[in-house]
Amino acid sequence: PKATKAKIVKLEPLRGQRVRVSGWIHRLRIQQELTFIVLRDGTGYLQAVLTGQLTKTYDAKTLELEAAVELTGTLQVVPEGKTAPGGHELTVDFWRTLGSAPGAEDAFSNRLNEQSDPSIMADLRHLVLRGETASGVLRLRAALLSAFRTTYEAHNVLEVTPPCLVQTSVEGGATLFQLPYYGQEAYLTQSSQLYLETCLPSLGDVFCVQESFRAENSHTRRHLSEYTHLEAELAFITFNDLMSHIEAVICETVDKLLANPIAASIIQQLNPGFKAPARPFKRMAYAEAINWLNEHGIKHEAEDAGGNVIKDEQGNAKMVEHAIGDDIAEAAERQMTDIIGTPIFLYGFPAELKAFYMKKMPREKGATGPIFTESCDLLMPNVGEIVGGSMRIADMEELFEGYKREGIDPKPYYWYTDQRKYGTCEHGGYGLGVERFLAWLANRYTVRECTLYPRWPGRATP
Ligand code: 4AD
Ligand code: MG
């Protein structure tokens, strides 16, 4: 009978029938008159068996790992006691090689394993991607982005696509990638926030999934030079609304993933024991966090007035207690999240530590010390900060003070300022690092595993 061409994920209803499947040889076991293949086509894995003459044709030697092949045969339910992906197996009656793969055995099995040098793994990322873990992470990433989009739709938040090429900075000049632009200077965007703010009076609440770029010389588990930034901006809200919204979007998105059989099984494989986080998330004011760190003996490196780490004679950094006004560094933040073990909203950072656009908290009468902002970071166990958000300055005078404090020339920001001139409103938003979120969800050691081709200082290949 004529064979039905199908993708592996669609095979189940075709059991008992003749089917034709194309893919790559993921696993191969050659015995005397029996060859077992696990075929991979991106949608799933299929076990196939070749017997007798089929294993002895002149081109049988092209049956090798990673060769592209077309297999035709009858799809049979595997007998009880035997297991196969999907619960069925292809008894092949005809096959052909579409693309041979000489030397793949060596390239894949010997070079790409857990012990491989990370720089080799990075150079061979295009081959690593064919593995079950890397492709599982990327498949989960696709499901995640799709679930976020569905969640935003339910909240009436509209998707827009802001530009990557910009002439203003959002998060400070220190991490901007500059490039010549038709005789002018332009940058790769650090955040689409300012553009999202301009969309509010036009489209209402908006979000985007856009690449952001950070020229940070950070070689850490959670920093990329280019990352996928999910950002949203909401009008007519309070700071409390903002945090509740972030919590709702994250929890609803995780629920959707767990209800999706493919995504749920990948989470189960990569992060067994994963449970959706309980609501509401713990909220901790910045000043409380400083106390918490000191109570738990978590110190930070002392710096001199110039921002250089102070070292003793042995060259060890001098460690000191945290004080109000200090930045909470990555190491301290991670220790705190790991000890507490649940998501934490850290909120109310001092204005001095934060960007020019953040709304200030009202000051209590007679209060001294730093001015705090309506800002929040969401910290997750194992990763630390995955979301940064804030209420934005709605008042024009206050915005000009912010420009001044950060040494920003207001001129190129005229369009951002206009937002306060024509129908200003209380509003706020946030940015979520997609790779960091995925690292949390899939329990990956580094964000470098959570994007197709990661970029970090010195690497833009492949
Ligand atoms: O905290 P950030 O810098 O905040 C902003 O850019 C705001 N303008 C966003 C907004 O309010 N619309 O970045 C937001 C998030 C971080 O919490 C982190 O998850 C991620 O972006 N992120 C990075 N992810 C990977 N590599 C980097 N170098 C990152 N820098 C920030
Ligand atoms: Mg941040």
Account of the 3D structure:
It is found in: Cytoplasm. Its main location: cytoplasm. It catalyses: tRNA(Asn) + L-asparagine + ATP = L-asparaginyl-tRNA(Asn) + AMP + diphosphate + H(+). The chain is α+β, with helices and mostly antiparallel strands and 462 residues long. The protein has two domains: 4-107, Nucleic acid-binding proteins (OB fold (Dihydrolipoamide Acetyltransferase, E2P)); 132-281 and 342-450, Bira Bifunctional Protein, Domain 2 (BirA Bifunctional Protein, domain 2, 2-Layer Sandwich). The protein is 28% helix and 25% strand. The protein has helices at residues 104-110, 118-123, 125-128, 132-154, 193-203, 239-258, 261-270, 286-295, 330-340, 396-405, 414-421, 434-441; strands at residues 4-5, 18-30, 34-40, 45-51, 68-77, 88-99, 158-159, 165-166, 177-181, 184-188, 206-213, 226-235, 282-285, 300-301, 319-320, 344-347, 375-380, 384-391, 427-433. The strands form four sheets. It has an eight-stranded mixed β-sheet with strand order 7-11-12-19-18-17-16-13, sandwiched between helices. A hairpin with a 3-residue loop joins strand 2 (18-30) and strand 3 (34-40). The protein is elongated and about 90 Å long. The mean pLDDT is 94. 4-amino-1,4-dioxobutan-2-aminium adenosine-5'-monophosphate is lined by residues 170-171, 191, 193, 214, 216, 223-224, 227, 229, 231, 385-389, 429-433, 435-436, 447.
